[in-house]
Amino acid sequence: MVRRKLGMVRCQWYDDHPLTVLPHLDESDANRLGPDLTVPLLQMGLSLFEEKSDSSKEKKFKQKFVAKTTLDEKQINEVMNAVKRYPTVTPRHLRLVAKNEEIDVSDFGSVGAKTQRKWIKVSAGALFRLKLDLHVAGSDKFAAEAFLPLWPKEKAAGWMILAADLDTDQLLSFSYVPPVRGSQCARIEVKMPSKSGRFILSLVMMSDCYLGIDQEYSIPVEVC
Fold it and tell me: What range(s) does the SEC63 domain occupy (predicted)?
């Protein structure tokens, strides 16, 4: 009888460049492309989150890789095809709901974004439901099964959503979201801090299959 154990197929250190999950890209090439560049940002550059594709974006993608990396044309095409396949989930139309109150907080952005946003006023200790409309980019956006050539078993691509206080590193909520096909609504419960004051509500979305497509968003909250 042959026993087969499931082991680790691919891993990264926390300080590895996120683009090193893509084929052919090493740390030096990835840093030349941009120290903070990620797979979701590359997908945005290819307009994968838009309804209509833009062929001119693919040309710009290739030109950038030719200018800043050591990859040849075939390798660049393989990188671009990999970027297109990544089923990245992005949140849209975000709402905080409590009893008869619903607050639209869709005007949020990535952590560190220099945007002028209003502080969302909430009651201390209030329990909110955070409702998100999730949309998937990539050519595999309607597929439930993950594309994992080196993994010996079938695996559905799910997501973990965490809400936390960015200032105190306190976890406020955790929820697992099953595979998203195209689009889906997700809900998680978030209890606001009992102490009044301002804090950044950090929303983290993590894939349970893919490296390099985790995302973090910030929502400015004022507890009254």
Answer: 128-219
